[in-house]
């Protein structure tokens, strides 16, 4: 498989320019190799330094302010459609999707710093050189990074291999693949033979979002990507993202993002 179908971008950077609030309709892994910076994800703030490993979901806006010179980092942007195929382990992949109340985006993996330097450097090299079996090799290296993160903070991986957790994971995957369609939360619960109340409560405990929030935020993430990367009208974006009508889309977008879709598009 073409490695660019797995990663949107992948590089080492020592650029000292701060990053204003932005987002990706994909998943991001950030590893600090040197220097100090401040990261803001939603309403949470963190200080990053060497050995800080960060996982950002496709639903989360974030910004970075550099606090010291010689700021060096690796970052990987993973195609959201290929996440499970790339990792092949539901527990490890859960770190990209689930945000329970106790979750922290930053992992201290300084005990594995040399190993992580090697893994990230190898991924960047394979991404750039595109040699035979490069996709297989980057999959192995990414999985190693996730294993080091799990060893450092196993409690951050909010997934258990029981029936309920598996059902919730399958619902997440269904929403991500079918958000353009008319999805009713009550139907998702009944299809999995769970009461709506129990399903909604369990879903939020595991993921940090209610099922409705997860559906709406997934639609909005795709909407923001379309507004930035295409010339589609607001009406066309509404249809492609599964919103019932334009007014509902504009109202929901402004409530969650803070500006209307048109103003969001103009400021990009």
Summed up, what is this model?
This protein is α+β, with helices and mostly antiparallel strands and 268 residues long.
Secondary-structure element series: EEEEEEEEHHEHHHHHHHHH
- Structural class based on helices, strands and sheet pairing: alpha+beta
**CATH class membership of the largest domain:** Mainly Beta
Distance between the ends = 32 Å
The average pLDDT value, as a whole number, equals 92
Secondary structure elements and pairings:
Elements: E1 7-13, E2 19-22, E3 27-34, E4 37-41, E5 44-48, E6 52-56, E7 62-66, E8 72-78, H1 83-87, H2 90-97, E9 106-108, H3 113-129, H4 134-152, H5 163-178, H6 185-191, H7 196-207, H8 211-229, H9 234-240, H10 246-257, H11 261-267
Antiparallel strand pairs: 1-8, 2-7, 3-6, 3-8, 4-5, 4-7, 6-9
Helix pairs in contact: 3-4
Structure description:
A hairpin with a 2-residue loop joins strand 4 and strand 5 (44-48). The chain is built from 11 helices and 9 strands. The relative contact order is 0.11. The strands form 2 sheets. A 5-stranded antiparallel β-sheet has the order 1-8-3-6-9, with helices on one face. A 4-stranded antiparallel β-sheet has the order 2-7-4-5, with no helix packed on it. Helix 3 (113-129) runs antiparallel to helix 4. It has helices spanning 83-87, 90-97, 113-129, 134-152, 163-178, 185-191, 196-207, 211-229, 234-240, 246-257, 261-267, and strands spanning 7-13, 19-22, 27-34, 37-41, 44-48, 52-56, 62-66, 72-78, 106-108. It starts with 6 loop residues before the first strand and ends with a helix. It is globular. The protein is α+β, with helices and mostly antiparallel strands. The model has no long low-confidence stretch (mean pLDDT 92).
